[in-house]
């Protein structure tokens, strides 16, 4: 019996699906339109489609046994991994309501005070107004009791006041509650007792406590992170329960940190999924690029709604705990991804000043661009590509026909408002979209002290390859790699990911006690081992790290810490890594200056359950000297017939010189004049400036 693993990535416009045969390594890909009203519908339709079932409702009934109905009896589904945007979209759309907050007596204005920093682009603080708080002050309640920074109890927990608070929330129907007490990172005992009171007095409430979500100091970030977890928990629980019922088998969900977790566990920590889909894309692209000999790359995931960019160094995407979603800071470990509203569905519009703008508003999957013929009324980036002939008159190999006349009429109407030719208008839409993407890439490279010209780029996602020639010119990139089936790289990435859980403990000291640090690492590794046992892993891998800073600094630098016993050699190695990393990040360090001591801040452990990754095989088919399948009128600098190549016809060593277009099932690569696209032995297209 064939055994397959399936990855399903739900995007704003399409749901991408990849199935890997565990015996042969054969990879099957497909796409289906997303269903924003109920993402589970698109999920089930995608699984049914990749398995060859008859429709979205034929798959669930038989998957319990691993063999869906409507599928040949020789197929068994061994695992399903899901990348979801449910939590992300709730936060981006600011759908956070009826949320309550419990904190320490005297600290009810934590959220109001927030931080003194003002976002870039807002000028000075006189002209910037703080956005609404995630919980308005009238829904904040306090409870007496106090821990100090060592975890010692200063004042006992006031249980009578806690009961009053729980009843207050119950009477007002507030059912999602976050609890964050001062210094609970050092001792969460009072938070645990508050949760017990809420469970007894208000059993209908969904509760998140900071001791579970983030045992790390800085009370504002810890409070908001806990509240975000509480806010998305009801939505994620409903979604996961719906999927579990319809799928009929256990499945896993991608996390923001580059790991996966079973759906049964992820409902208890839904905040870990806020960058679920984009994280899978960065990991899949990293594996593809390193296999092709490019261990350090920029990844660009272009979808229908947005574009996500990340940096991969030596095969590993960069991680951060200073990220956020929308206006909410989230101090959980996540792949360092910058998202910009520049996708195929991004809407072109005219500002009150009469200038052309593109995004961040998107037509999404419903109604979609004008060319979808589903009632869309605004010109999008996809419409501009269709008008210029750079995209075929259909998507998904003909499954979704495009209305080129509707795109043309929309572009012409917009051009009339701007006083430009339709070609100039459509080209301008694409130029603005390319600059929006390039600005996101600069944020994650130049602003991090990296030279963008040192990194080739991996472009994927349905719209990712469409603007790569312009990005090479704008940024000076050495090359762009376009993988096979670029629209399914994120879904493929889901099948390359280990199970991973992160644990942290704040331990601020300038004189590290090795015995105390060993005890903390032991406790964190024990927590990680318990979680991996619940996931069914007997092979445990633990990755330690530590956050350090020079005494007096406000923020820390994270460095990996060696495994094994903690001794003086271990301490010296971590300190050496800190000095080197600080110098690399900021251009200076105080390694030999006794006036600047080093302060240890946080100790961390990642528990990893390793999986067997699918192998990326060499491409045995196609020809090195293919002819075009046909020609089509395409506008680059002028209207002219351009050769249209089928990607499946290209073999290793094949070179396509622009102007041309390379088409495949889920994506299109326009090759501009002066550029070449060369097929490598793994089926990747490498786009460069033509040096001839």
Summarize the SSE layout with pairings.
Layout: E1 2-10, E2 14-21, E3 27-33, H1 39-51, H2 60-63, E4 75-83, H3 86-92, E5 99-104, H4 110-113, E6 140-143, E7 146-147, E8 153-155, H5 159-171, E9 176-180, H6 189-201, E10 206-209, H7 210-213, H8 219-247, E11 252-254, E12 260-262, H9 263-266, H10 276-291, E13 297-302, E14 307-313, E15 316-317, E16 319-320, E17 324-325, E18 328-329, E19 334-335, E20 337-340, E21 346-350, E22 356-362, H11 381-387, E23 394-395, E24 400-401, H12 404-418, H13 422-444, E25 457-460, H14 468-475, E26 480-482, H15 489-494, E27 499-509, H16 514-534, E28 541-550, E29 557-561, H17 568-586, E30 598-609, E31 630-635, E32 639-646, E33 655-657, E34 660-663, E35 668-671, E36 675-679, E37 685-689
Helix pairs in contact: 1-8, 3-8, 5-6, 11-12, 11-13, 12-13, 13-14
Give structural notes.
With 692 residues, the protein is of the alpha+beta class. It contains 17 helices and 37 strands. The strands form ten sheets. Strands 13, 14, 15, 20, 25, 26, 33, 36 and 37 form a nine-stranded mixed beta sheet that branches. Helix 3 crosses helix 8 and helix 11 crosses helix 13.
Supply the key terms.
Oxoprolinase-like; 37 strands; 9-stranded mixed beta sheet; 17 helices; globular; 6-stranded mixed beta sheet; ACX-like_C; Hydant_A_N; 692 residues; alpha+beta
In short:
The protein has 17 helices and 37 strands. With 692 residues, it is an alpha+beta fold. Helix 3 packs across helix 8 and helix 12 crosses helix 13.
């Amino acid at each position: 019996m064939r055994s397959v693993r399936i990855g399903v990535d739900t995007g704003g416009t399409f749901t991408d699906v990849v199935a890997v045969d565990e015996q042969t390594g054969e990879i099957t890909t497909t796409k289906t339109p997303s269903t924003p009203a109920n993402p589970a519908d698109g999920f089930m339709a995608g699984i049914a489609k990749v398995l060859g079932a008859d429709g979205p409702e034929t798959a669930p009934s038989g998957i319990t046994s691993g063999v869906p109905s409507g599928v040949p009896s020789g197929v068994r589904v061994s695992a399903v991994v899901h990348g979801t945007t449910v939590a992300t979209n709730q936060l981006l759309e600011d759908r956070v309501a009826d949320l309550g907050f419990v904190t320490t007596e005297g600290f009810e204005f934590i959220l109001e005070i927030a931080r003194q920093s003002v976002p870039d682009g807002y000028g000075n603080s006189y002209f910037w107004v703080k956005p609404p708080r995630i919980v308005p002050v009238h829904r904040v309640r306090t409870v007496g009791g106090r821990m100090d920074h060592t975890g010692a109890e200063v004042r006992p927990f006031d249980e009578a006041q806690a009961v009053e608070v729980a009843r207050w929330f119950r009477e007002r129907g507030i059912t999602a509650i976050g609890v964050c007490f001062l210094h609970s990172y050092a001792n969460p005992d009072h938070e645990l007792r508050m949760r017990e009171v809420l469970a007894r007095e208000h059993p209908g409430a969904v509760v998140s406590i900071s001791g579970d979500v983030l045992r790390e100091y800085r009370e504002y970030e810890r409070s908001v992170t806990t509240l975000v977890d509480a806010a998305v928990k009801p939505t994620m629980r409903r979604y996961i329960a719906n999927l579990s019922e319809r799928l009929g088998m256990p499945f896993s969900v991608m996390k923001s940190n580059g790991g996966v977790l079973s759906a049964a566990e992820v409902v208890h920590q839904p905040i870990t999924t806020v960058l679920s889909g984009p994280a899978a894309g960065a990991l899949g692209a990293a594996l593809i690029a390193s296999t092709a000999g490019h261990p350090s790359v920029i990844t660009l995931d272009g979808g229908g709604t947005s574009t996500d960019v990340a940096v991969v160094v030596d095969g590993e995407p960069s991680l951060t705990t200073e990220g956020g979603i929308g206006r909410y800071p989230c101090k959980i470990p996540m792949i360092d991804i910058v998202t910009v509203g520049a996708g195929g569905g991004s809407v072109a519009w005219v500002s009150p000043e009469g200038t052309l703008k593109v995004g961040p508003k998107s037509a999404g999957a419903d109604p979609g661009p004008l060319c979808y013929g589903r009632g869309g009324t605004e010109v999008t980036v996809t419409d501009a590509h269709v008008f210029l002939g750079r995209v075929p008159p259909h998507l998904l190999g003909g499954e979704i026909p495009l209305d080129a006349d509707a795109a043309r009429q929309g572009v012409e109407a917009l051009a009339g408002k701007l006083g430009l030719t339709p070609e100039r208008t459509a080209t301008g839409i694409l130029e603005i979209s390319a600059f929006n993407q390039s600005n996101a890439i600069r944020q994650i490279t130049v602003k991090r002290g990296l030279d963008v010209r040192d990194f080739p780029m991996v472009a994927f996602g349905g719209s990712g390859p469409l603007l790569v020639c312009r990005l090479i010119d704008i940024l000076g990139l050495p090359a762009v790699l376009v993988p096979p089936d670029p629209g399914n790289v994120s879904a493929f990435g889901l099948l390359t990911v280990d199970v991973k859980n992160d644990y942290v403990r704040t331990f601020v000291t300038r004189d590290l006690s090795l015995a105390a640090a060993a005890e903390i690492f032991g406790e964190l590794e024990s927590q990680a081992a318990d979680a991996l046992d619940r996931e069914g892993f007997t092979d445990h891998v633990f990755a330690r790290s530590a956050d350090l800073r020079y005494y007096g600094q406000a923020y820390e630098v994270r460095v990996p810490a060696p495994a094994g016993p903690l001794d003086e050699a271990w301490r010296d190695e971590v300190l050496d890594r800190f000095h080197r990393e600080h110098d690399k990040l900021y251009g200076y360090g105080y390694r030999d200056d006794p006036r600047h001591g080093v302060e240890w801040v946080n100790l961390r452990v990642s528990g990893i359950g390793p999986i067997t990754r699918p192998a990326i095989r060499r491409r045995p088919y196609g020809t090195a000297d293919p002819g075009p399948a046909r020609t089509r009128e395409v506008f680059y600098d002028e209207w002219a017939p351009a050769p249209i190549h089928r990607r499946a016809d290209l073999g290793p060593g094949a070179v396509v010189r622009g102007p041309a277009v390379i088409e495949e099932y889920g994506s299109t690569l326009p090759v501009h004049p002066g550029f070449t696209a060369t097929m490598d032995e793994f089926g990747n297209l490498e786009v460069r400036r033509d040096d001839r």
